[in-house]
Amino acid sequence: MSTTTGRMSRGARGGVILSAAASGLLALSGIVAGTGMLAITPTAMASADDNLITKENVIEGTMDIDFATRLSRDTSGKLKEGSPALGVKDKYRFSITVGETTQFTGEINRQPNLYSKLIQKHEQSAQLQYAVDLIVKNPKDLKQSKNIGRWVGVIPIDEASGAYDLSGGREQDRALRMKVEATGKASAFEDFFGGRMMGRTEKKDTLVSSTYKRIIGDKTVQVTIKRSDPMRFEGMILAKGPADNYPRTTVNGRLDFDYETSNYFSDGIKFRYALDGKDYEDTITGSIKWVEDADRKSNGKGYYEFNLRFNEDKNKTAKGEGAAFEKMSDEDAFFAVDNTIPCLTGRVSYVDVMIPGKDSPSSSKVTYSLNANKLNKQQIMNFFKLWMICVGPTNDE
Prior knowledge:
397 residues, mainly beta, two-stranded antiparallel ribbon
């Protein structure tokens, strides 16, 4: 995966699959008398099987992306021809609410590898840098809120392999982490991310053919793509937080990009975590489809259409419900939304400002509007965290 730009060509822009994130993380216990400050305490620890959420816009908000590395080119003559200027970064500024009461506001900066012109000396290392405020809202009055901590740190990107090292590599003092303050009866804590993510490849000759399956009632449907480019999650650790009922989670699996259709696919991204003394494993399958506006060349519009299933093998479509899909082609049935089982649907929409004479944007305004169907809070929050780790690859153009 290139670390010098943001999204892939929206002709190569794919849709992504993963899991979702929910809410209700901290409950407001009241207002401290005479201070005007919010007193917030965590909700009681609950099983992940409890309190399933069916809600529109369970993840909503906006992100503004500035692809500065595409416009600010090196003029010193010291770097490899066509390189961005030293120190220039792409910026992803966002304010996104998860489940109404948890808000993430801040920015992620992304800088590329840079090399000298003559001897290809490594002059700058690729990395992501996080500076995100963690905010909780009063469920009885969403206008009231309190900043309880930050999501901060650096993800170095290995020069040779392109691996994202969530443990921080040599930057241990700047490792990616959730740092939460003591609030009300809730104790302060600091928890770290770990493991790694392999970004999309820059060597297109290594792409392979892959087949993906879905179960619709008694029918198994499949789609085969010829040029699959996977992102791989290898023992990735999602840090605990922002509250105790969102535990440390291990992620393994793949999210595959299709260069012919610009979609993403997965046959199984696995999230493993323990909550209240019980172990859980969620498996995410499905697709996210890139859909371009008919006038995209002039208006810059397009969107990802999410169609993700949770634990599909344990939540098969009922026979009566599955009849609606029987007359569809395999491909149409594969992409059809089935709200009878746990799933994440909705859109992440883009309005891009294109660079004159090129197919890539200089900036994007992104709107999140994702819906949960029979999902628990942990599934939703785990998805959101993973999606923010994937912010570079999933926004490449």
